[in-house]
Structure prediction request, 297 residues.
Amino acid sequence: MSDNPRELGAAVKAAVLIESLPWLQRFAGKVVVVKFGGNAMASDDLKRAFAEDMVYLRHAGLKPVVVHGGGPQISAELDARGISSEFRGGLRVTTPEVMTVVKEVLETRVNAELVELINEHGAYGVGLSGESQDLFGGRRRGTVVDGEEVDLGLVGDVVEVDPAVILELLDDGFIPVVSSVAPDLDEPGQSLNVNADSAAASLAVALEAAKLVILTDVAGLYSDWPNRDSLVSHLTAGELTELLPSLTSGMIPKMLACLEAVEAGVEKAAIIDGRIPHSILLEIFTSDGIGTEVVAQ
Prediction:
């Protein structure tokens, strides 16, 4: 091989492109659902890189769908308005006053900004919420803290998905961007605050997605946190089920979402480090991937 730096650099770039070939073939025409969150939502550079990744996936022949939350942005706006907010069991207690802020922040700020960033590369992004054309149907849920049932207010789970609007947009070449709000099936006209990880998993199942990818703020799942050498790169649904009781509260919803997805037919689910620019491309188009991947068996 030549020792010319320019030729060496070109060879490395070519090797990276060739490594992506089998994955391009495998995922061509397939739906990939990506949950956007974590530190990637707080950094302008990472948001732009994420938007570029979504457009790249679309041009590479995949059908990306984005689901997002907005916890830090919601907390900041609540603080700015002097509205108190608390978390119980890792979930935000959502009063009607808080729900108004949740919808405003998710739909008119986070969603709109992400769509705008995607559309810097062409008119591909379309903003939606879980309330758009009956996409999601939700029911209220509580949680258990110290053995006692806790009322979380307007917090719910996605229990129904009608993916028709998403499928239509994908067929027309668009990139749907969905905020994690759902209509309450038991109280028409009422909106529910739903966990974006779980919503993304439910949507991935309904769309028969080839892969669910969840961005987070760590390198992946650690079997013995905080031991950095215990990072798990690959595990089965059964192995994950055994690990769940030992996981930290912040990791449990993400890993449950992965588990629910693969058990319901999604081929692969992964959590990856959203602090790394273009981590989505590394996960999908390289042999080793990045983060932790979960498969059925």
